[in-house]
């Protein structure tokens, strides 16, 4: 049936809007619809239809005929065979490529005996039966070239995706320029050379151009500025050696631009402000210099991502940045920016990442940053910022990374930082902080760097129940006033540092009764749910106690619940001011130091759940203050020492799960004479034989159940490590 006049008018207006619009197009029921920014289709407006009604009848009849043809062709089969010339061009190109790896490879379906539109993988056709798209991403075409494909034989081609194939050679400029219907071109992740062809600027319909990750080289053609319909331009890591052509500012439809990781120099042209639909803008890792033009922020209302890091921009951060209300990520680190952090940044309510590190910024941290309640990452490190950390930072309750190191910040850290419950990285080093460190109510911290800050009087350092890993940082041993070191229930590995004697406050007994009368104490507490007011919570004698008022007398080390191995260093016994020592639930091996008795003030000693062997030193009976002892679940042997303080520790569980021990308070008696050690060893081996037999049977059964683990060693090792990890965590 014929279209009525109203529909004719709607169709013509839609055609005109489509021709002038930069929005994506889709075919609607009666013509062409325009996609809005959200990708939603809207029917063409009919405003001005009366003007179209005054066209000649001949013109109207022609449009009617075209509309009827469009409707009828939409109803035709989309699997019709393309013209023979198009099929032959594709088959000739296939013959120049490496043979398919298998019968299931996409190019295996390309055969003269089958219909291209119906059966050829990666080939799509339009309603007219012509090839409209070729999509063969990552199918292994290394060794092939794009020049071998006769693109001039594919005049209706709208989409070409040959990314990730290792294609070599140059992009054939003349052939590509013939593709006047081309909408999308993706040749990324290949080995293409020869530069970006200026002829690409002659493709009026092009909306997506992706040439990233190719060693193209050369300059950015100014002719790209003619691509008024282009929405996405990605030339990242393309080996470009160029400046930025101001003509690119004419790409008024551009929403995504990535020119990062090239060798682009010069300045950022103010003409780029003409890209009024810009959303994501990446120019990082280049050699750009000059100032950041403020015009771009006035004209890019939809900007959400701005990455300009690793360049040489100078000057100040433009206050106009406050106009980019939709900005979510701002990365300006590693430039030469100076001046203060503009207060206008505090109005970017959608900001999730603010990275201004490694510049020359001065002045205080604006308290307006406390308004950025969506902020997840805040990095201001390696600048010249001064003053105190504003208390308003505590409002950033979803903050995960806070890096303020290497500045000139001073004063006390605000107590409001304890509200950062999601914090997992905190770096405050190389500043001039003093005073009490807040109680960070977080169990999510995986890295803390305070070293270099002026906290020489720090006495109590608690990082327990977090997720720290790696070796115990040697920088901790620079805190000479440290009395309490609690790193328990983390994932530390490595060995116990031998330089523990540098903790001089643990070498001499603490006799200070009124700590407020001498030196103001410093507390760093990163365990959850505690607030300090001259009180301290310590795992003492296998229970948690609260110490208040006289915490200056508290001296101890708790490294329990980690993955620390190696031997207990003998230097540890030089810390004669220790009142408690907890090294349980680790992988310590070797023997207990013979001079353990030098720790005369020790009241609590827990070495349980390790792999310690040998005898129990007799010096342990010299610990006259010892009231809590746990040596269970090791591989100790021989006779348990007696006398003095050990007489009061009569609980057999202290020595349980040590198959070679004998004597009181155990029910196993020791024979007299020199044969004791030999007999003890035989008993140990007998017990170990039963113990390991059970384990071997369990492991063998597990292997039968998980047969694949037997044949793949990396899987097996990872699985057993995971079981051991879970076991350790449960024991905590």
From TrEMBL:
SMART domains: LRR_TYP. Keywords: Cell membrane, Glycoprotein, Leucine-rich repeat, Membrane, Repeat, Signal, Transmembrane, Transmembrane helix. GO terms for cellular component: plasma membrane. It is found in: Cell membrane. Coiled coil: none annotated. Gene3D superfamilies: Ribonuclease Inhibitor. It holds the Pfam family LRR_8. Its main location: membrane. It is a single-pass type I membrane protein. InterPro entries: Leu-rich_rpt (IPR001611), Leu-rich_rpt_typical-subtyp (IPR003591), LRR_dom_sf (IPR032675), LRR_N_plant-typ (IPR013210), RLP23-like (IPR046956). Residues 85-125 form the Leucine-rich repeat-containing N-terminal plant-type domain. Belongs to the RLP family. This is Leucine-rich repeat-containing N-terminal plant-type domain-containing protein. It comes from Urochloa decumbens.
């Amino acid at each position: 049936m014929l279209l009525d006049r109203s529909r004719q008018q709607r169709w013509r207006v839609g055609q005109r809007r489509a021709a002038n619009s930069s929005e994506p197009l889709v075919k609607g029921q009666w013509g062409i619809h325009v996609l809005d920014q959200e990708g939603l289709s809207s029917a063409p407006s009919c405003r001005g239809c009366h003007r179209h009604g005054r066209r000649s009848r001949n013109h109207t009849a022609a449009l009617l005929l075209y509309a009827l043809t469009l409707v009828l062709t939409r109803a035709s089969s989309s699997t019709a065979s393309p013209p023979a010339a198009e099929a032959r061009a594709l088959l000739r190109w296939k013959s120049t490529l490496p043979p398919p790896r298998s019968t299931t490879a996409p190019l295996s379906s390309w055969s003269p005996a089958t219909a291209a539109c119906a059966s050829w993988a990666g080939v799509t056709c339009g309603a007219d039966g012509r090839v409209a798209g070729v999509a063969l991403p990552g199918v292994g075409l290394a060794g092939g070239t794009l020049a071998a494909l006769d693109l001039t034989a594919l005049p209706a081609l709208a989409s070409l995706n040959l990314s990730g194939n290792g294609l070599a050679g140059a992009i054939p400029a003349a052939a590509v320029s013939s593709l006047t219907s081309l909408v999308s071109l993706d040749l990324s992740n290949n080995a293409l050379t020869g530069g970006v062809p200026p002829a690409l600027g002659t493709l009026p319909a092009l909306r997506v151009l992706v040439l990233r990750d190719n060693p193209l080289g050369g300059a950015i053609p100014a002719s790209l500025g003619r691509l008024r319909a282009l929405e996405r331009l990605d030339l990242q890591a393309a080996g470009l050696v160029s400046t930025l052509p101001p003509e690119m500012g004419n790409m008024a439809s551009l929403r995504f631009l990535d020119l990062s990781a090239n060798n682009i120099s010069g300045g950022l042209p103010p003409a780029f402000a003409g890209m009024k639909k810009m959303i994501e803008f990446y120019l990082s890792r280049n050699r750009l210099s000059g100032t950041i033009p403020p015009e771009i922020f006035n004209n890019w209302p939809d900007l959400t991502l701005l990455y300009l890091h690793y360049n040489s921009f100078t000057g100040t951060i433009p206050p106009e940045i406050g106009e980019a209300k939709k900005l979510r990520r701002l990365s300006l680190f590693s430039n030469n920016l100076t001046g203060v952090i503009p207060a206008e940044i505090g109005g970017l309510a959608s900001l999730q990442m603010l990275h201004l590190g490694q510049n020359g910024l001065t002045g205080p941290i604006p308290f307006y940053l406390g308004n950025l309640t969506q902020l997840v990452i805040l990095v201001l490190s390696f600048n010249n910022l001064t003053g105190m950390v504003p208390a308003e930072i505590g409002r950033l309750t979803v903050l995960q990374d806070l890096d303020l190191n290497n500045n000139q910040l001073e004063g006390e850290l605000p107590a409001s930082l304890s509200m950062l419950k999601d914090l997992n990285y905190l770096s405050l080093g190389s500043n001039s902080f003093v005073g009490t460190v807040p109680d960070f109510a977080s169990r999510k911290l995986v890295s803390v760097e305070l070293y270099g800050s002026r906290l020489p009087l720090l006495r109590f350092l608690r990082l327990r129940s977090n997720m720290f890993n790696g070796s115990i940082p040697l920088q901790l041993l620079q805190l000479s006033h440290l009395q309490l070191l609690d790193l328990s229930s983390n994932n530390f590995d490595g060995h116990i540092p031998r330089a523990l004697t540098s903790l001089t406050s643990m070498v001499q007994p603490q006799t200070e009764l009124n700590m407020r009368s001498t030196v103001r104490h410093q507390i760093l507490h990163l365990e959850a749910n505690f607030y300090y007011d001259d009180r301290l919570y310590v795992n003492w004698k296998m229970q948690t106690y609260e110490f208040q008022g006289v915490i200056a007398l508290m001296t101890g080390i708790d490294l329990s619940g980690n993955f620390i191995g190696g031997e207990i260093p003998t230097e540890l016994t030089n810390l004669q001011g220790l009142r408690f020592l907890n090294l349980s639930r680790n992988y310590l091996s070797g023997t207990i130091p013979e001079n353990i008795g030098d720790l005369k003030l020790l009241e609590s000693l827990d070495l349980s759940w390790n792999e310690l062997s040998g005898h129990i030193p007799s010096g342990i009976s010299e610990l006259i203050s010892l009231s809590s002892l746990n040596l269970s679940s090791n591989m100790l042997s021989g006779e348990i020492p007696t006398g003095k303080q050990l007489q009061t520790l009569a609980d057999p569980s202290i020595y349980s799960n040590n198959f070679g021990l004998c004597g009181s308070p155990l029910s196993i008696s020791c024979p007299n004479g020199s044969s004791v050690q030999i007999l003890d060893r035989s008993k140990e081996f007998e017990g170990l034989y039963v113990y390991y037999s059970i384990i071997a049977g369990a492991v063998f059964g597990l292997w039968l159940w998980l047969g694949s683990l037997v044949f793949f060693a990396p899987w097996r090792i990872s699985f057993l490590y995971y079981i051991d990890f879970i076991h350790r965590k449960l024991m905590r």
